[in-house]
Design brief:
The chain contains 16 helices and 17 strands. The protein has 623 residues and is an alpha+beta fold. The longest helix has 39 residues. Belongs to the nonaspanin (TM9SF) (TC 9.A.2) family.
């Protein structure tokens, strides 16, 4: 009898995970403490836009002030480099407790080409990212009188410029507000809890405007040479309510919690529906089948009938392209381990928006170290298929899918290099990725395969005939193309609402922090993949079709196709990308994300189907 205990434990697991669906909390580790007259560095990072996935290093722009002579690049983790961050020191003087009415930073002589570039960036709504004490500069909203220390909403970054009266005006003056919290018993020590930037476009004369709101002219940029004067003001404002541990809360205000809960309810309804179908199969249909098949006196009646027992001598027959299937499933296990570990780290607070580039860095390193799991599972399955060279299989596992993805990354990167974008992967970083691949992932895959091939072969109930049984023509709606197409809709239905928020965070440079909801959706997605694959495979076997190996993989992984279609809708409805290279970046990245997702869901469906089939054929008497 197949146990259905995991299905009964699902509601309890969901209730436990529900604790993580509240607003994300950024844990405080060791805040920087500043005292009066301490200098606080302001770092400039990049400019980016939701209208283009091509960011540019702010310090390298030809229309801003030149880099300081002693400018230093900040150390970046792998994720920061891959997302286009280029953090550098600046000449902005921020001294704790010292307000600045107006200070001239520089006067920049901009060429016609540089001015045209600035105009194009402004037209594409590029935002500027600066950093103070690891806080991104933000534009503040809800600034009603008397509510300076109450609820407020931040939008990370500030616009490079604005378009008005059919002209492009660059923001050449900024009012910087540093919010600080005084620590009790620390001798006047302060922690920075907010970094606000209010930008202005001002056509300035020789004097620095102390009140930019009273200046009625703007600094325009066009296709002509222009001199741009950059100025700034600084205000230090004490915030007695906001503490360092909660300073990210203003960046993470969400008004879509009800939508997330709707997504969860939608997922739970789907899971309960599928659970009912699986329970029906296990508790009624399958139980009845096994009781009939176990009766010796009913043997003659069943010889002329149809059913899943009739193919017991063919159901474990080695499939076509078995070595490729082993490699793909090995990479799927590798992806599954990476995804589960990354989500656990995110729910625990290790990965959060304050850890810039953390998701990408952790994901890549976890994927590399999970190569051991890939090699182990691939080798065990390869042994089931009576493979003769486990080393070749391990190398294929470590190179097939990663090699395809790396080829896409390399080709797209050639186009990004041509645009001088900071999103272009430097040669050193690309070399580091190759070293991770061949220096960590490949050796660990071989190690895992070594231990996997030493394990005893997975035993199957019954023997496989030498001559394959003829497969009858299936009913039209049970044909593979229809079954796979329809079965992929259910996993997609689980995630499509949450997918919208994920795509917005990726392509519109917004913070994603609802990891409790993400974990709930992820668990229900995996449960859905398990159940839909079992249902598809069972009805296929009832039709005396024993070619279930690949179909169990595609039954749940085909939802990746619907996700790719959804990215097309998101591209046309949410984004305004109208150039070739940005569009190429979007679709190539979407394709790679869908491939990784398909590996994860397809492997989950395959493993569950394989377990299910071994259980049901072991539970009956097979002659």
């Amino acid at each position: 009898m197949v146990s259905h205990t995991p299905l009964l434990l699902l509601p309890l697991l969901l209730l436990v995970l529900a604790a993580g669906t509240q607003a994300f909390y950024i844990p405080g580790l060791s805040p920087n403490v500043f005292y009066d007259n301490d200098r606080v560095p302001l770092f400039v990072n990049k400019i980016s836009s939701k209208n283009s996935p091509l960011p540019y290093a702010y310090a390298d722009l030809p229309f801003v002030c030149d880099k300081p002579k002693d400018a230093k690049r900040a150390w970046l983790n792998l994720g920061e480099v891959l997302r286009g961050d280029r953090i550098s020191t600046s000449d902005y003087q921020l001294v704790v407790g010292k307000d600045i009415a107006c200070e001239t930073l520089c006067t920049k002589s901009v060429s016609a080409e540089g001015a045209a570039m600035a105009r194009d960036f402004i037209a594409n709504k590029y935002n500027v990212e600066w950093i103070v004490d690891n806080l991104p500069g933000a534009t503040r909203y809800n600034l009603a009188d008397g509510q300076a220390n109450k609820e407020r909403t931040y939008r990370a970054g500030f616009p490079l410029g604005k378009e008005k009266w059919e002209k492009s005006h660059i923001h050449n003056h900024v009012t910087i507000r540093i919010l600080y919290h005084t620590l009790p018993g620390q001798g006047g020590g302060k922690t920075i809890v907010g970094f606000e930037v209010n930008p202005y476009s001002i056509d300035q004369g020789d004097s620095c405007p102390e009140d930019p709101l009273k200046v009625g002219t703007f600094q325009s940029v066009s296709d002509k040479e222009v001199d741009i004067k950059y100025t700034y003001s600084v205000q230090w404002i004490e915030d007695k309510e906001l503490t360092w541990n909660h300073r990210w809360n203003t960046y993470l205000v969400s008004t879509d919690v009800e939508t997330h809960w709707y997504s969860i309810v939608n997922a739970l309804v789907t899971v309960l529906f599928l659970s009912g179908m699986v329970a029906l199969i296990i508790l009624k249909t399958l139980k009845k089948d096994m009781s009939i098949y176990s009766e010796e006196d009913m043997k003659d009646d069943l010889d002329d009938g149809a059913g899943w027992k009739l193919i017991h001598a063919d159901v474990f027959r080695t499939p076509r392209y078995s070595s490729i299937l082993c490699a793909i499933l090995g990479s799927g296990v590798q992806t599954l381990v990476m995804a589960v570990a990354t989500i656990i780290f995110a729910v625990l607070g290790v990965l959060n928006p304050s850890y810039r580039g953390g998701f990408v860095s952790f994901g890549l390193f976890l994927f590399a170290f999970a190569g051991a799991f890939a090699g182990y599972y691939s080798a065990r399955l390869y042994k089931v298929f009576k493979g003769t060279s486990w080393t070749k299989n391990a190398i294929l596992t470590a190179t097939l899918v990663p090699g395809f993805l790396m080829t896409i990354v390399f080709l797209v990167n050639l186009f990004v290099w041509s645009k001088n974008s900071s999103n272009a992967i430097p040669f050193g970083t690309f070399l580091a990725l190759v070293v991770m691949w061949f220096g960590i992932s490949l050796p660990l895959t071989l190690v895992g395969a070594f231990f996997g091939q030493r394990k005893a072969v997975i035993e199957h109930p019954g023997r496989t005939n030498q001559i394959p049984r003829q497969i009858p023509e299936p009913i039209w709606y049970l044909r593979p193309r229809y079954v796979i197409t329809l079965s992929g809709l259910l996993p997609f239905g689980i995630i499509f609402i949450e997918l919208f928020f994920i795509l917005k965070s990726v392509w519109e440079d917004q913070f994603y922090y609802m990891f409790g909801f993400l974990s709930l959706v992820f668990v229900t997605l995996l449960v859905t993949c398990v159940e839909i694959s079992i249902i598809v495979v069972y009805f296929q076997l009832c039709g005396e079709d024993y070619n279930w190996w690949w179909r169990s993989f595609f039954a749940s992984s085909f939802s990746a196709f619907y996700i790719f279609l959804y990215t097309l809708v998101f591209f046309t409805k949410q984004l305004s990308i109208d150039h070739f290279v940005p569009g190429l970046i979007y679709f190539s990245n979407s394709l790679m994300i869908c491939i990784v997702y398909g590996l994860l869901t397809g492997t989950t469906g395959f493993i569950s189907s394989y377990w299910f089939i071994r259980k049901i054929y072991a539970a009956v008497k097979i002659d």
